[in-house]
Write the structure tokens for this entry.
Amino acid sequence: MSELIKFREIIEFTLGDSVLEITYIISSILFIIGLKMLSRPDTARRGNIWAAVGMALAIVSTIIFHQQDGEPIGNVGLILAAIAIGTLIGTLIARRVQMTAMPQLVSFFNGMGGAAAALISLMEFPHISQELITRHGMLNGQVLVILLALMIGSVSFSGSMIAFGKLDGRIGDIRSGALRVVNIILLVLLVGFIVYIMSLGQVNPHEVAYLTYILLAVSLIYGISFVMPIGGADMPVVISLLNSFTGVAAAMGGFLYDNQVMLTGGILVGSAGTILTILMCKAMNRSLTNVIIGAFGGAPAGAVGPGGHIKEISISDAAVLLNYSPRVLIIPGYGLAVAQAQMLCHELDKMLERNGVDVKYAIHPVAGRMPGHMNVLLAEADIPYDKLLESEEANEQMEDVDVAVIIGANDVVNPAAEEDPSSPIAGMPILQVYNAKNVIVMKRGMGKGYAGIENNLFFEDNTSMLFGNAKDSLQQIINEIKNM
Amino acid sequence: MESILEFIYVHREMIFIVILSIFLGVEVISNVPSVLHTPLMSGANAIHGVVIIGAIIVMGHAGTTLSLVFGFLAVVLGTLNVVGGFVVTDRMLGMFKKKQK
């Protein structure tokens, strides 16, 4: 331990390098301020813009001032062309996509970042410092950083693409216990392979570069099989997790290039993303392991037989009930968004308000496909902020609610979460609509929610079902009220 | 072992940054209302697009055609991540703004 390790470090730099570091500091500060502002409703939009300014600053000054062994950045024309292509496609996709498709879009962009990190690692592997290899062989920090970035980046890429496909309805779930075993084997294989590459000793990295392509392939497969068995309802958690993975992969790049802005940016996202993942799990009252190993749908809970029979309500009865009730509470779910019925919902709301009905919305934290997703969707329909109640607030007022209208939501109002400890959603905080005087459930059919379990609420005496597409039903109710 | 200790010593400042950034990230996020979870995730998603800096460095010092092609691809993908991420976040937050008037 006391043996002296001599490490020659000659510090030589140009003033350009100094300017570069200063802009990196400014960019890092802008990232931090941006994230901080993003977490408050009144400053969020400006926060996003500040972070974007920080990013632009870092990119521009890297192109102008970055040097490697005295060489400035070359291929500037091509770099600018690549940025132009990326900007064009990125803006087009981001502007065109429907707000309901938000989660898969975030997943898609996340995958792009992961892929970029993996590509960088592939290219940097052959250029590992010769000096490091002569002294330590492959067992050195640089190799570790490159291999980790390659693995995490590729897992994030293929995982995000699967998550994207699932949310977009292109890929179904494969829920088999075998896949769980395969996952563990693949993970062990990946770690083992990294250890193997690092134990190769003094080799020419050019000659073993093919090993990184094998690592890439296995990582990609692992990303797919990691996300494949996880149910669609849990995708937001997975995306958030993969989001923080990509952050870590970017940070590895920071180590590789001694680049502080990559490091701060990457780690910030890595830790913030992890916290966000945990917050999302908390909202569903589940642990992260539970989400990843997957208890949902594992064993179809056939033990609890649904009791009673269901009662249907006609459009005109529903219209009368709504129009002559003092207090109406709307509980929107993803079904509302899928049917693109937000606007109609707002129209009904306005019409009822004109007739003296007090209309509010109760937003469950996991309504929609992502926490906060429903708020974005309702905002799109111009529904005022102060009409949206959070779960706890809504539950306190529930007993005074005359009609609770559930549009395309299921699991978030399922009393099984409170009553049946063996239920997969046991313990998840729910909206206690069973306390409302009347409940109207708008649903396409008796299908189960994402959790794949029966909902006893539908069999309650004060519950009436209104089957059909939410958009059509709402339109008919509006027409009915108009004619009253 | 020796090489790992060496790595830690040589990169000690960066390791400090990592540790402090982890706490900072947690601190910055922890009080976010659930309304903002989606925009925040999207904004954070754009920020990890900093990998683009690495892609630019690879491309700027590319020695072979292969690394130039891969670098080009990496820059395009990184830009997609950055630009797409920020634009989409702005679009989401723009809708919040509109009805807060």
